[in-house]
Amino acid sequence: MIGTVVENIKLNDKYYYMIINNKEFVEKAKVGQFLMVQSKEYDYINDPILRRPFGICDVDYDSGDFSILYMIVGKGTMLLSTFKKGSKIEFSPPLGNSFTIQSKKNVALVGGGIGIAPLYFLAKTLKDNNCKITLYFGGQSEIDIVFLDKFEKVVDEIVVTTNDGSKGMKGLVTDPFIKNIDHYDYVYTCGPKKMLEAVSRICIDSGRAVEVSLDERMACGLGACLGCIVYVKDDDGNEIQKRCCVEGPIFDGSKVIWESVCRG
Amino acid sequence: MIGTVVENIKLNDKYYYMIINNKEFVEKAKVGQFLMVQSKEYDYINDPILRRPFGICDVDYDSGDFSILYMIVGKGTMLLSTFKKGSKIEFSPPLGNSFTIQSKKNVALVGGGIGIAPLYFLAKTLKDNNCKITLYFGGQSEIDIVFLDKFEKVVDEIVVTTNDGSKGMKGLVTDPFIKNIDHYDYVYTCGPKKMLEAVSRICIDSGRAVEVSLDERMACGLGACLGCIVYVKDDDGNEIQKRCCVEGPIFDGSKVIWESVCRG
Amino acid sequence: MSESLKINLCGVEFKNPIITASGTFGYGLEYANHIDLNKLGGISVKGISLKEVKGNPMPRIMETSAGMLNAIGLQNVGVERFIKEKLPALRKYDTKIIVNFWGKMLEEYIEVARVLDEEDVDMLEMNISCPNIKEGGIAFGTDPKMTYEVVYNCKKVMKNKPLVVKLSPNVTNIKVFGKVAEEAGADAISAINTLLGMAININTRKPFLSNITGGLSGPAIKPVAIRMVYELYKTIKIPIIGIGGIMSYRDVIEFYLAGASAVQVGTANFVDPEIPIKIIDELNNYLKCNNIRNISELTGKVEI
Amino acid sequence: MSESLKINLCGVEFKNPIITASGTFGYGLEYANHIDLNKLGGISVKGISLKEVKGNPMPRIMETSAGMLNAIGLQNVGVERFIKEKLPALRKYDTKIIVNFWGKMLEEYIEVARVLDEEDVDMLEMNISCPNIKEGGIAFGTDPKMTYEVVYNCKKVMKNKPLVVKLSPNVTNIKVFGKVAEEAGADAISAINTLLGMAININTRKPFLSNITGGLSGPAIKPVAIRMVYELYKTIKIPIIGIGGIMSYRDVIEFYLAGASAVQVGTANFVDPEIPIKIIDELNNYLKCNNIRNISELTGKVEI
Ligand SMILES: Cc1cc2nc3c(=O)[nH]c(=O)nc-3n(C[C@H](O)[C@H](O)[C@H](O)COP(=O)(O)OP(=O)(O)OC[C@H]3O[C@@H](n4cnc5c(N)ncnc54)[C@H](O)[C@@H]3O)c2cc1C
Ligand SMILES: Cc1cc2nc3c(=O)[nH]c(=O)nc-3n(C[C@H](O)[C@H](O)[C@H](O)COP(=O)(O)OP(=O)(O)OC[C@H]3O[C@@H](n4cnc5c(N)ncnc54)[C@H](O)[C@@H]3O)c2cc1C
Ligand SMILES: Cc1cc2nc3c(=O)[nH]c(=O)nc-3n(C[C@H](O)[C@H](O)[C@H](O)COP(=O)(O)O)c2cc1C
Ligand SMILES: Cc1cc2nc3c(=O)[nH]c(=O)nc-3n(C[C@H](O)[C@H](O)[C@H](O)COP(=O)(O)O)c2cc1C
Ligand code: FES
Ligand code: FES
């Protein structure tokens, strides 16, 4: 698919927010899905070569806009940050499975750093479904706490933590979360592997359902290359392979075999 | 060296004109020299990889601006055409030898297509040296005849030819040139190999000195890789090797062994 | 459908010479919702073995300059499930099906070839880049004697289908392997498979791939692939399917000039699943503009 | 000058491990007006032969995706003129001089080695990627017996200088060649030379290089180079100079982790002559930030 860059906003030195217009994409997009974005503007250039996966951060059904929130990591995201308003950009349709949407429940969203990205679309959808939402948002430092103003309008409560205490409480996001776990019926989480694993264990221990969104390196995004395998337990407890791009990126946190997950 | 793009003007679908600011470069630039330009904006991208050679088209000692006139050929020039005003651009210092500047002579400049580029800087310099200048400018078609308004202010006479007759006389640029060869003391030429060879033969036959500017594929531009060899006859008539980037790009047209020249 | 792209490869009629490369196109079906499979000349499916294989631990892929490394570990559902679960759905599309296959021992190669030869597929493509566990891990594709053995013995049990042998580029002299495969009865050669490479994450100090090394593919390797197709064309008489870094119709023409009679598009499918279709359209256009009646006229037409 | 980059390679003290690669840096002097040669760890000069060589007809170079092909044809002024015309000027700079050399026959290799061993140079680097005209064009670097012969015989006549043997990557098993060179007396290995490639101009239908094929270099080949350095490090005890696609200090670290004790920067010199100097500065900084006392601590430290 091809879209037009509506905005490509630098939030700070580490994070950017890109709004893209494409009606067809927006009509198909489901909450929790991702897309593969071509980060080079010219197809006659072969470096970088693969598309990059990003979670859908927000969609606007009226305007046909959708957005990604991204962190500068390497050459793909550096290039993305150079896209100017009005440029054309290439990407896949919405890919992967989606979050299960609860209604009228007390839910917790636990986001670590850039893991916050798909949680915004989720929060909006849950709000529409009359959930009471608490956002736990952890980062390394102040710079990682972005998008708070947007979340404030959607969620009922926000708890911020940073490792260095430069914003919110000092510590890990799981510290306040574990204390309040009893308040929630359902938990959704996205972020670094260590955090997802910790959140999942907390949920398992207290009998809460938890959905995690996983990042695996991807080449095709379509289930063809088998580059993005995640090992999970099936209902009988057997270890089985799932493709993060097709059967994921959303998994039941209690089923994931965490040692097999390689992306941070 | 690093400069700032002052302008990057699309002249038509095939030709662009880029003005770059760098005082140090301009101070060093000699007429007939070229530079190696990095056509990608980000050094973390490895395709395209090599710099591209372009003739110095014009310099402005006051402002510290210089310019290149370029034709879209492949990925390097396509990328160059996307540079925006104000962007940084990387390039080598002025490289190669330079044209011999005549004073108070009747001179002819013979340019074919993009070969016109270095002839503008040359024409300005010759005019400052009180030469009477005729420009012969040949192209495939109307689209190839660019920069005429600029030349009009500098040269005394312009003869335009196109292969298809869409602008100027129909035919080869050598047709009118051969008729008038007796008027000139000195000839300078740049363009496709076939034209350079023809112009050189005409000059040899009528005993005129001729300087040609040659394009060879280049990797280093500094005389190190030996990728740009041109075979010429030395004073004793022996075939010797010259590096187009160091001992060229300007050669005595009567000495070049034309079969050895591979670039069109 | 255009006449100018129709080709006949070992008796099989392809509507065009654009085949998606094994391992980059799954079992074909994964792409069915994204592009029109009916437009493709053919599909070479993920390498099939006798039994299901789970592949390597993660991570399995990494990008490099103008290329990528993969060490999927030949994960596949095994020949039986392939025939039962994948083939019927795939056969509904109007495109040729090439089954890429491999084994850990000679006997496995022979058995898979025997089984597939009886099935409703168009061609078999033997991948000899995999290490032979019986012979201590030396790949079938890097020892000419082993190449001969495996090709000869598979061909012996195949009564119906043409056999394409896919060569490894990780050899000193590709011509030797082309020649040996031809002598052993191969109907065509496909070249090249991936170059063996490695990349290390300097932050973690670990290799990017769990398998340590992996196969390098993409435009980075195209010059090596073109050279090998050229060398093979001068050496053997059977047709060559050119593979390696194809991104556009220009690359296809380049492979044809070097000596190819068809091509496979691999990594490009990840870059944009539309690329094979775009290539077909652009090739059509190119041939028309250049008054070339059939693309086969270009095979080996590099002017030396 | 920083202690953290100082290395000792076969008894020669380098102020840093960044050496410019043979053929990409001329005789060094070409770059003297463009960068400060005194900052470089060393310079490996263009491959020298017994007699002057004029090289291949044009065209000799072509760009490819993230790389380039070259078929310069080993043009050089010959050992005598090199010593007379180039070496004295080059020696004025405070950097180590490695003389890359080659021959068309065993006897030429030996003769050049003998001559250079007596000169004021720091190391010899034997290029064995060139075809041996006596043995019908088989490269010295693709037949282990020939590799042994040429290394052993050159080493025999060398009394003073360390001998680096530069391996060709166009072989099935690089470990065999590293082992053989080591056994024959090589003091170090450098790897890799260029991969054999080819590119065709689809408009003219001619190869882009007059020589038809050429050597592929640049970031495109880095994964192959890293893999080979890693394989060599596991196989031999003598130090390895890593080469292939180095563009930044990160690539240098990657080569070190794979097993390199020094590196050479080649194609990058064309991209920007400042790159080797930038790399040195950035390495310094990297080592400081990571509390690494000397870069040698990183050799072979990839975590498997
Ligand atoms: C399903 C999914 C959703 C994602 N959503 C977001 C998001 O909303 N916002 C965001 O900033 N990032 C997201 N990521 C991570 C994002 O894809 C990477 O940060 C990005 O690909 C880095 O590319 P690069 O070229 O800048 O980095 P490089 O390190 O240069 O990339 C090299 C290769 O590694 C891959 N890679 C690098 N980091 C990651 C990673 N963390 N996960 C997967 N692949 C990686 C790249 O895709 C590329 O193929 C998501 C990843 C996945 C799989
Ligand atoms: C001394 C000199 C002066 C030049 N001056 C000008 C000028 O003023 N204006 C202008 O438009 N062009 C000029 N050229 C030609 C210009 O360098 C090429 O058109 C340009 O490099 C094409 O790059 P590309 O990536 O668009 O094409 P591609 O074909 O994709 O380039 C591939 C490779 O081939 C080389 N190449 C392609 N065409 C040429 C060519 N004609 N000459 C040399 N190398 C080539 C490129 O540099 C690159 O390394 C000059 C060349 C030389 C040697
Ligand atoms: C992820 C991936 C998986 C692959 N799996 C196979 C395979 O199972 N069998 C095989 O013969 N080749 C396999 N290959 C090699 C490709 O079919 C092809 O030969 C190679 O990628 C070069 O082509 P390309 O540069 O167009 O990708 C695989 C390549 C990739 C990138
Ligand atoms: C133009 C050119 C000329 C070369 N000439 C030589 C040579 O004379 N001797 C040699 O051993 N290697 C030669 N090489 C190979 C390089 O020294 C180096 O091994 C190779 O380019 C890989 O490194 P890179 O990717 O950093 O360029 C040459 C490479 C290039 C690009
Ligand atoms: S990314 Fe290819 S299978 Fe998931
Ligand atoms: S371009 Fe390298 S010697 Fe001329």
What does this structure look like?
The complex is a heterotetramer, with two copies of chain A (264 residues) and two copies of chain C (304 residues). Chain A is of the alpha/beta class and 264 residues long. Chain A has six helices and 16 strands. Chain A folds into two domains: 2-91, Translation factors (Elongation Factor Tu (Ef-tu), domain 3); 106-262, Rossmann fold (3-Layer(aba) Sandwich). The longest helix of chain A has 13 residues, at 193-205. The model of chain A has no long low-confidence stretch (mean pLDDT 96). With 304 residues, chain C is α/β, with parallel strands linked by helices. Chain C has a single domain (3-56, 74-196, 217-298), classed as Alpha-Beta Barrel (TIM Barrel), CATH 3.20.20.70. Chain C has eight helices and 14 strands. Chain C has helices spanning 78-91, 106-117, 144-157, 174-183, 222-235, 249-258, 268-271, 275-289; strands at 7-9, 12-14, 18-20, 42-48, 61-64, 67-70, 96-101, 123-127, 163-166, 188-191, 195-198, 213-217, 240-243, 262-265. In chain C, helix 4 links the parallel strand 9 (163-166) and strand 10 (188-191). The longest helix of chain C is centred in the C-terminal third of the chain and has 15 residues, at 275-289. Chains in contact: A-B, A-C, B-D, C-D. The C-D interface holds C 64-67, 69, 142, 170-173, 195-200, 202, 204-207, 212-213, 216, 218-224, 226-227, 230, 245, 250, 253-254, 257-258, 301-304 and D 64-67, 69, 142, 170-173, 195-200, 202, 204-207, 212-213, 216, 218-224, 226-227, 230, 245, 250, 253-254, 257-258, 301-304. The complex binds flavin-adenine dinucleotide (2 copies), flavin mononucleotide (FMN) (2 copies) and FE2/S2 (inorganic) cluster (2 copies). One flavin-adenine dinucleotide (FAD) binds at residues 34, 48, 50, 52-55, 68-71, 73-77, 114, 117, 215-218, 249, 263 of chain B. Chains A, B: Keywords: 2Fe-2S, Electron transport, FAD, Flavoprotein, Iron, Iron-sulfur, Metal-binding, Oxidoreductase, Transport. Chains A, B: It comes from Calditerrivibrio nitroreducens (strain DSM 19672 / NBRC 101217 / Yu37-1). Chains A, B: It is an enzyme of class 1 (oxidoreductase).
